Amino acid sequence: MKQETRKEEIIKTAARLFKEKGYSAVTMRDLAKAMGIKAASLYNHINSKQEILKEIIISLAEEFTSGINVIKSSDKSSIEKLNEIVALHVSITSKNTYGMASLNNDWMHLEEQLPYYLELRSNYENEFRNILKEGIQKNEIINSDVEVMLFSILSTLRSLYLWIPKKEDLNSEELTSHLSSILINGINK
Amino acid sequence: MKQETRKEEIIKTAARLFKEKGYSAVTMRDLAKAMGIKAASLYNHINSKQEILKEIIISLAEEFTSGINVIKSSDKSSIEKLNEIVALHVSITSKNTYGMASLNNDWMHLEEQLPYYLELRSNYENEFRNILKEGIQKNEIINSDVEVMLFSILSTLRSLYLWIPKKEDLNSEELTSHLSSILINGINK
DNA sequence: ATATTTAACTAACACTTGTTAGTTTGATTG
DNA sequence: CAATCAAACTAACAAGTGTTAGTTAAATAT
Predict the structure, then answer these.
(1) Region for B129 from its dihedrals, namely left if φ exceeds 0, alpha if ψ lies in -120 to 50, beta otherwise
(2) What is the largest CA-CA distance in chain B?
(3) 3-class DSSP state for residue B46?
(4) Beta carbon of B182 within 7 Å of strand C?
(5) Nearest CB partner across the interface for A186, out of B25, B108, B186
(6) Torsions phi, psi for A140 (to 5 deg)
(7) A36 by DSSP, 3-state: which?
(8) Distance CA A109, CA A102 (A)
(9) Does the domain formed by A49-185 have CATH 1.10.357.10?
């Protein structure tokens, strides 16, 4: 149907530049130069700078949404569900560290799609919160402040894009299990 | 000496705008409008847009540096030192959530001061890492991957600027103690 | 061979960017 | 009262912004 290949090359390159300098600081001429073409030529493949950002962010946000929906529907324990959430973040982030930077830092520059993104994000946090609450009820998780637990864990998972590239020695399984262990059991001896 | 008041008003307003849209997306005209004056009038008080960013970020980075230097020199246990690091982050971030957004997201737009910032940042991480290593040696902290522990805790602390404004019900002491407990002991029952 | 498609190009646009120069106004100080 | 000064203003700049229009050249399909 469409020339998906070239468009996706542009989006990937854009994601890399967005990670380095942020969406607003990257010009279409920067992006073109990184692709080895002229700025105007980009418009044979994409409709606007905005659209590039949208494609990067929304597809990732939808991946997280469908991921957590699978996890919540399983009959595993709450702790096991948390493990799976960690694995979900490690998996998505490993495949696209550049895009995750945009999702974390440039979502406010979405325009028409901003309400949709915020909805996905808020739904995700709600599902995560529900899993924690369920764990407390079932006596698997300490009865501490749910919001502090939620944002503490989520902050770590959302920052993964920053240090996965620096930790290439650990593979995904090792990283997931170390991380789960620290998030769930802490660092106290 | 100088008219510190007006300049600092500008810097505070800028920090708020930088948090909402990022440094690159905020124009001097945006900033002027938020101050109720014209863009050119800003230059009676500041020398450049760059300088505003520098003042926001470097002063915060230096606060962290001097904070951790005090902590490392104490003769407390490693776990107590960790508690103090958490308190340091909560304290600095509570006083300046806007500025912390710039420090986290816009440091790459520092120009002449970038090497200095990176040095402060890397020193801070080293001191933090040393405290963790010391804790492992003294058998206070589990002998797990130091880098995973470091970045897990630091990610949470660095994200504080995002959710402290949403958690105004908790005061600093409560927040610090909840957070320390979760970071150190985890959420497992 | 001809027609179509893909993907590049040049040239230009209207607008926005950070910043400078020079001026005015109202308050404070000598 | 005169002089100074802080802090605003208008006007303008050169450079850079995203994007459009129209064209060209090579590859692919008919």
Answers:
(1) alpha
(2) 60
(3) coil
(4) no
(5) B186
(6) -95, -25
(7) coil
(8) 10
(9) yes
Residue A141 to residue B188, Cβ atoms within 8 A: yes
The Cα-based distances of A106 to A103, A121, A150, B149 in angstroms read: 6, 14, 22, 27
User: Could you identify the residue written with the tokens 């993964």?
Assistant: A160
Q: What CA–CA distance (Å, rounded) separates A25 from B143?
A: 42
Say if B79 is an interface residue toward chain A (CB within 8 Å): yes
- CA distances (Å), B27 to each of A108, A162, B33, B34, B49, in order? 16, 27, 10, 11, 9
Nucleotide nearest to A28 (CA to C1'): D18
Tens-digit pLDDT profile for residues B19-69: 999 999 999 999 999 999 999 999 999 999 999 999 999 999 999 999 999
pLDDT single digits (tens) B78-122: 999 999 999 999 999 999 999 999 999 999 999 999 999 999 999
CB contact under 8 A, A79 and B188: yes
Distance from CA of B62 to the nearest CA of A (A): 22
DSSP A188: B
**B22 to A155: CB separation less than 8 angstroms, yes or no:** no
> Which residues in chain A have their CB less than 8 angstroms from residue B189's CB?
139-142
Among A107, A79, A89, residue whose Cα is nearest residue A23: A107
The correct answer on CATH 3.40.50.720 for the domain covering B48-185 is no
What are the domain boundaries of chain B? 48-185
pLDDT in tens, A94-138: 999 999 999 999 999 999 999 999 999 999 999 999 999 999 999
d(CA B179, CA A156): 13
Do the Cβ atoms of A142 and B79 come within 8 Å? no
- Looking at the complex, does the CB of residue B142 fall below 8 Å from at least one CB of chain A? yes
B49-73 and B4-21 helices cross at what angle (nearest 10)? 90
Interface size A-B, in CB pairs within 8 Å, comes to: 139
Q: Give CA–CA dist A171/A164, Å, rounded.
A: 10
